[in-house]
Specification:
Structural class: mainly alpha
Shape: flat
Mean pLDDT: 93
Order of helices and strands: HHHH
Low-confidence stretches: none
Largest sheet: none
Number of helices: 4
Length: 112
């Protein structure tokens, strides 16, 4: 599969929802689902890179798939609320660059 832009991903999710999903879940439901999916990512990270051990049921979890679930629901919420994530991301990157262009470089904690 060719690389997908954020805009294309938003369009693909919208097409899938309208074709197979009947309709979007409401925004509050999707927010709860997003929180659940982020929790699943956190669970894998805590067990893979942290001190927690895996339960038998955790061993079948796939970090990439869970991250894709987070992205899916985020794209749904963007579509539902009329947000162009490409535009939002570009604006956010400019904000971070202006605000933090020297902050991290000057952070002694990061430079050792």
């Amino acid at each position: 599969m060719a690389e997908i832009s954020i805009k294309q991903a938003q369009e693909m999710v919208d097409h899938w929802i309208r074709t197979y999903g009947v309709r979007y879940f409401n925004e509050l439901t999707n927010m709860a689902i997003l929180t659940e999916e982020v929790g699943e990512v956190a669970r894998i990270i805590a067990r893979t890179y942290g001190e927690q051990s895996f339960k038998e049921s955790d061993k079948r979890k796939d970090l990439a798939d869970e991250m894709a679930d987070v992205l899916w629901v985020l794209l749904c919420l963007a579509n539902q609320t009329g947000i162009d994530l490409t535009e939002a991301f570009e604006k956010n990157l400019r904000k971070k660059t202006e605000r933090d262009k020297e902050r991290h470089i000057q952070n002694e904690k990061l430079n050792h």
